């Protein structure tokens, strides 16, 4: 009987140790006791699984930073988050952190998304005056879609001003997601077309220079760039 009691006690101790280790590895695992939402828990888990260095090196500290990130943004941001792209949350947090420096405002981030093909009008062989088509063919237009993230101090009419900036660079806005933080910053995420290559360096530089030249009020500081270079804009 004493052996059975000893075995049971040992099992309880082992279970307690295992639970403690699991909690240390994943500090947001128990959302009910920590106040973390299920979304935060899932995003944290995805980033931990991917072995993101800043997450793996200090999970407890990162868990708190992630919680603060979601707390300062509106519920609409959480609704927009795609947990399959958990790294986007990390990117948004870094951009907002960078925006805290007045000399870096506005903060721009550009990345290529994908090529979108637009079917043209059908050309039938019977209507082909050149006689070079033997079958129905279709012209295809190519659009390069980019994501542009902008962060700066929040203020009225900022969206319309940023829209004017993108238009000046020659971009067409296909999607716009706008979020204001509780501490006075903004996070604007645009999906655009109009830049005719996949490269992003030229587009990023053009955005910075155009903002510095015509829209200095964006910064709340300064960018330190000269007038925009025409060669960087789309032809």
From TrEMBL:
InterPro entries attached to this UniProt entry? ACT-like_dom_sf, ACT_dom, UTase/UR
The record's annotation in SUPFAM superfamilies points to: ACT-like
Q: What is this protein called?
A: ACT domain-containing protein
The reply to whether Isomerase figures as a keyword in the UniProt entry is no
List each copy of the ACT domain by range: 147-227
Q: What superkingdom heads the lineage?
A: Eukaryota
Does the entry feature the keyword Hydrolase, yes or no? yes
GO function term, MF aspect, one = [protein-PII] uridylyltransferase activity
Q: Which Pfam families match?
A: ACT (PF01842)
Keywords from UniProt, A to Z, are: Hydrolase
